Amino acid sequence: MDVLNAYKSAARQLGLPEMHRGGCQLETQGLASAKDVWPALAAMSPRQGWLQFQSRQLAFHDGLPPVETEWGLLLAAEAATSDGHSLALSLDGAGGWTLTRYSHSQEGEMLYDEPTQLAHDPNTGRLRYRRWWRHDPAQGYVQIYACFIGFE
Question: Is the pLDDT of residue 60 over 70?
Fold first, then answer.
């Protein structure tokens, strides 16, 4: 793959994240009721990640924390599981939530990299993400997915 080799050469010179070939599968679950959100997330056994409630934002490192009622509704979350999956919870714009599970594969026609981002609380550690890029004949490689894979 000529593009991948060219990127690797530039990445070394510019300090960019390494790029590899791979694939990604998504599974989504719609959640219509606030009472279904926490049980659905907990059932996927997140190991570490972050949670955004109406009145609280926090990171977790050893499984989900106990929820406090004064935090309000869970609005968004990103998490990584012990078996290597990534989870994303978001509002769906129609009064419900979407819970997405990303499954990474070393095989596939996409490219992926794993950059890090600064966390709101530096004591949490840097946020690690995996981004997938798909080739588009008109635009070149376009980022199509990004998901949290853990704290550094």
Answer: yes
Evaluate whether residue 48 is within a structural domain. yes
Residue 2 pLDDT class (50, 70, 90 cuts): confident
Rg value, the chain, Cα:
17
Which residues contact residue 114 at a Cβ distance below 8 angstroms, ignoring those fewer than 6 apart?
17, 18, 128, 129, 130, 131, 149
**Residue 6, domain member (yes or no):** no
Please state, in angstroms and rounded to a whole number, the distance separating the CA atoms of residues 148 and 79.
6
State which amino acid sits at residue 20.
H
Domain ranges, residue 83? 21-61+73-151
The backbone torsions φ and ψ at residue 69, rounded to the nearest 5 degrees and listed phi first, read -60, -30
Q: What is the chain's length? A: 152
pLDDT band at 1 (very low <50, low <70, confident <90, very high): low
- Cα separation, 110 vs 62, whole angstroms: 31
Cβ contact 100:25 at 8 Å: no
Give residue 84's identity as a one-letter amino acid code. Answer: G
Helix H or strand E encompassing 42:
helix 34-43
**Domain count for the chain:** 1
Q: Hunting for tokens 């590899």 — which residue is that?
A: 20
Per-residue tokens: 149: 């894979």
